[in-house]
Description:
Elements: H1 2-28, E1 36-47, E2 52-63, E3 67-76, E4 79-92, E5 97-106, E6 111-123, E7 127-134, E8 140-148
Antiparallel strand pairs: 1-2, 1-8, 2-3, 3-4, 4-5, 5-6, 6-7, 7-8
Amino acid sequence: MYKTLFTGVAAxxxxxxxxxxxxxxxxxxxxxxxLKGTWTYxxxxxAEPGATPFSALRKVTFDGxxxxxxxxSRVASxxxxxxxxxNATYQVKADCTVNFTYEIFDEAGKVFLDSDVMFGFIxxxxxxxxxxxxxxxxxxxxxxxxxxxxxxx
Length: 153
């Protein structure tokens, strides 16, 4: 029940909050180069079985050519675990929508998430809001926000 409710609410918020703001970015057109540099990647959701809440924070780097990588931590049931993002690709369309595929490995080098797929919207080349669309790992349901990291000079 929580998974269905969360998915419905997340999809509704995604649609309401982003279709309007994405129009400005789409007018300019987006390419793989739109996502380049260092970004923060946060996600929240529910893990299966039992709909256990979890969250993650990662620092990721986009190469501007369709590949990305990164590392960070996840928290579920009070346990903090380090994770590494590998085999990650992204495809950006001219309308500023983006598809992500990736695998996440735990600190022991074991695959934690295998080939998940997210779909998102790029907003002004500095923020992406995404929703899990294909969960091959059985982890659950989540939403993600990626924001360009602007380091102080």
